[in-house]
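Suppose you are handed only these lines of text.
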Amino acid sequence: MADILEQLAICIESGKVNADATYPPSMKGQDGAAELTASALQQGIPPKDILAKALIAGMSRIGQKFSDHKAFVPDLLMSAKAMSAAMEHLKPYFESGEAQHLGTFVIGTVQGDMHDIGKNLVGMVVEGGGWKVVDLGVDVPPEDFVAAIGKHPGCVVGLSALLTTTMASMDMTVKRIKEASPDTFVMVGGAPLTSGFAAKIGADAYEPDPQHALNRLSAMGA
Ligand code: B12
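From them, the structure of the protein bound to cobalamin can be written out as follows.
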């Protein structure tokens, strides 16, 4: 059992989607995340073990490399693709309630801001970490975040902003969320931000990249 889970973790970390995938060249012709997930299920390995010991483990390794500047955006995108291929096989178990998400993370880019590459990477890594991710997209008005919190009680919210001009919009969004739902944990991120700015606008946390975001969620024990 340990062997197949480790092979699967390597596929996620390396972005090996399935047997037909030619990326990465060093794994050409080998089974990928899709086949190994199907085999693991056939062998009777519980879906929650496949998720925790292979998929989350693999995503966490690539997320850490990204934080350490040893992997880059395309690597993370390939890992997310492999993760999605594996999740296709696990989805029925999550939908039936046999396996549980660790929590819900509502993410979006604040009003006036169209940048979504960083936000999408954070969403992928957090999803890879076992969370249900609700992505509200870009240019999201504060009221849409408030509505999503109503729909997903107990969720954590992630806000992204890439422009100095939309940092003001982030400030407004945090205030609106805290008025409507003071206990909702709000994490912010984006290139122009600092932890000082996050504290000033009343956000609960600032994280610089996807793996730190996931580490923070894990540390919250949600
Ligand atoms: C790609 C890009 C665009 C694309 C966006 C496409 C898309 N789908 O996202 C397009 C062409 C649409 C665009 C438009 C504009 N852009 Co632009 N854009 C960029 C660029 C080149 C890259 C941004 C990016 O994707 N980086 C890669 C990702 C992975 O990094 P990231 O977003 O920082 O995300 C990481 C972290 O910040 C963090 N993170 C991000 N979000 C979150 C959220 C949470 C919760 C957490 C925990 C972490 C987190 O994790 C990510 C991964 O590590 C930057 C310059 C640069 N080199 O950064 C300019 C830049 C951001 N843009 C800029 C500007 C000015 C604009 C425009 C105003 C240009 C114009 N005059 O029209 C418009 C604004 C449109 C709008 N209303 O939003 C400026 C912003 C300056 C400023 N400080 O305000 C920059 C810095 C360029 C510059 N040097 O002038 N842009």
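What can we learn from it? Strands lie at 104-109, 132-135, 156-160, 186-189, 205-206. Residues 73, 112-119, 121-122, 158-160, 162-164, 187-192, 207, 209-210, 213 surround cobalamin (CB under 6 Å).
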